[in-house]
Amino acid sequence: MLSFGVKLPCWCFLLLSCLQSLSAQKEFFSSIGQMTDLLYTEKDLVTSLKDYIQAEENKLEQIKRWADKLDSLTATATQDPEGFLGHPVNAFKLMKRLNTEWGDLESLVLSDTTDGFISNLTIQRQYFPTDEDQTGAAKALLRLQDTYRLDANTISTGDLPGVKHKTHMTVEDCYELGKIAYSDVDYYHTELWMAQALRQLNEGEESTLDKVTVLDYLSYAIYQQGEIERALEYTKMLLELDPEHQRAKGNKKYFEFQLEKQKAAEDTSEKIQKKREPTEKKKPKKVSQSLLPERKKYEMLCRGEGIKMTPRRQSRLFCRYYDNNHNPKYVLAPIKQQDEWDRPYIVRYIDVISDKEIEKVKQLAKPRLRRATVHDPQTGKLTTAQYRVSKSAWLTGYEDPMIETINQRIEDLTGLEMDTAEELQVANYGVGGQYEPHFDFGRKDEPDAFKELGTGNRIATWLFYMSDVSAGGATVFPDVGAAVWPQKGSAVFWYNLFPSGEGDYSTRHAACPVLVGNKWVSNKWIHERGQEWRRPCGLNETE
Fold it and tell me: Looking at beta carbons, which pairs linking 147-154 to residues 24 or more positions away fall under 8 Å?
């Protein structure tokens, strides 16, 4: 006797129940006429059984295609994990796959007998990204789109500068981005991504989504931005595909009514205007870059625009071999040093940290990486913030001799005391990772800044670049129009305070979103205490 270890769907049980019911009512062997009915019943059962088998085979075929696709993708990705995830679309799609698509696969497989896989998947899912992760990755893509002025098609085709692993976004991916923007009442990005989804559908891309669903979101997003005429055009396109779409029918009437009102108001306005005497049109004034909002200046600098270094000032910047006043460690092997900016004075040290040290620092930091924090001026304590998207860890000198060596190197090159400095902070910026404009030092309106440390204000900042970044990720200073680009193995240094102890407000800076690549940095915030004889006070505020 054969036994099948499969769970039959409800309709199979219904058909079997029918047979049991029939046999309970009569003895079929005593009547051929009645027995012929059983033949048709059996025929229906076989047809249903074949449908069930076909459904199971289709299910397995879907799973097989998914497994083959993921096998190829993970084989490529694991050869260079950081490089692969350095592409923001790859990072977004990883979040989407693990948070959404693996859940869909789980639902598909649940009726099967693969209990081992299901239990394993169920256990592993507790470590999967959440909705918050998927939304965060999507918003990062939107942030990159705005900062670097990328159109949706460029991102969708994966045609980004410096990419190693080019990847394509599906209609569903574009739709998902549009939906996330829609739930944030961000109709601008909703329009961009629903339009991209529609474009790909029109180009013949296969998708489980239909044009009606996409057009519904697209027309409404356009209407919310005040473009009623265009919203009406897309609504008509929707009704051509689905004439009975109730919401679209209602929207069409409403949009037409609003356009009539708008036209009537314009006609009235024109009549009033004609009665008035003509006036000369004023030429629009050109907005000075100094009057631009900080956000605009920040984004321009991230794109490499608006840098204010003149040729004359550039000619005064030099590179040199540096031994910090004949420090014994650097007399025979001085460090390469170059001026990055004049006011504020920003200097870069080349090849100041080795690849071996970088890997050790990353190895120590990775298990401890947590969402990066910022200084809260109200409480004087560290807290998380939406404007800083990265993870960080703190490393102390006594944990590993190499960290102590690095700390000592910073002291030797800057001439500043490290005993009162904060621990070495290691940060990793993920997809679209950034740190919006901020000061490193505490201002006068923050009397409790760093009070619990008892070491005074942050006098200076030392920043190691521990990776190259293919695109984006610059450190920019919006107030002075300066941009410093990551260079693996180098470090930049600047003073946050004047010798008088007053804050240098021109040091307000930001970390631009990483467009392509994986950005690792580590920094040392050096404090005032202990520097009294190393950097004597000045007599003037800005001295």
Answer: 147/299, 147/302, 147/303, 147/472, 147/512, 147/513, 147/515, 148/302, 148/303, 148/471, 148/472, 148/513, 148/515, 149/303, 151/192, 152/192, 152/193, 152/195, 152/196, 153/196, 153/199
CA-closest candidate to residue 422, choices 450, 445, 380: 450
Q: Can you give the pLDDT at residue 220? A: 96
Question: For 73, how many CA atoms within 13 A lie in the half-sphere containing its CB?
Answer: 15
Tell me the C-alpha distance between 92 and 139, whole Å. 9
DSSP string, 212-238: HHHHHHHHHHHHHTT-HHHHHHHHHHH
Range with lowest mean pLDDT among 9-23, 69-83, 393-407, 475-489: 9-23
pTM of the model: 0.80
CA 415 – CA 535 distance, rounded (Å) = 9
Residue % of the chain over a pLDDT of 70: 82
Compute the average pLDDT of residues 483-499. 97
Average pLDDT value for residue range 297-324:
94
Q: Take residue 14 and report the two structure tokens written for it.
A: 């219904």
Q: Residue 133: is its pLDDT beyond 50?
A: yes
Q: What angle is formed at CA 370 by the lines to CA 528 and CA 494, rounded to 5 degrees? A: 30
Residues 272-281: b if buried by 16+ CB within 10 A, e if exposed = eeeeeeeeee
Q: How many other CB atoms sit within 10 Å of the CB of residue 333?
A: 8
Query: How does residue 386 score in pLDDT terms, banded at 50, 70 and 90?
Result: low
Q: Quick check: 237 pLDDT over 80?
A: yes
Query: Would you give the DSSP letter of residue 465?
Result: E
Instruction: Tell me the CA end-to-end span of the chain in Å, nearest whole number.
Output: 97
**Which whole-number Å values give the CA distances from 23 to 14, 181, 210, 383, 474, in the listed order?**
14, 60, 47, 73, 80
The vertex-392 CA angle with 386 and 393, nearest 5°, equals 145
Question: Average pLDDT of 220-227?
Answer: 96
Short-list 79, 95, 163, CA closest to 133: 95
Contact partners, residue 97, CB within 8 Å, separation at least 6: none
How many other CB atoms are there within 10 angstroms of residue 264's CB atom?
Answer: 10
Residue 116 DSSP SS3: helix
Q: Per-residue confidence at 107, pLDDT binned at 50, 70, 90? A: confident
Q: Does residue 339 carry a pLDDT above 80?
A: yes
Average pLDDT, the chain: 85
Q: In this structure, are residues 336 and 319 in contact, taking their beta carbons and an 8 Å threshold?
A: yes
In 367-426, which residue ranges form alpha helices assigned H by DSSP?
Answer: 401-414
d(CA 52, CA 397): 65
DSSP state of 428: E
The Cα 44–Cα 48 span in angstroms is 6
Please tell me the distance from the alpha carbon of residue 217 to that of residue 542, in angstroms, as a whole number. Answer: 55
Q: Rounded to whole angstroms, how far apart are CA atoms 429 and 470? A: 13
Asked if omega into 367 is within 30° of 0 (cis), the reply is: no
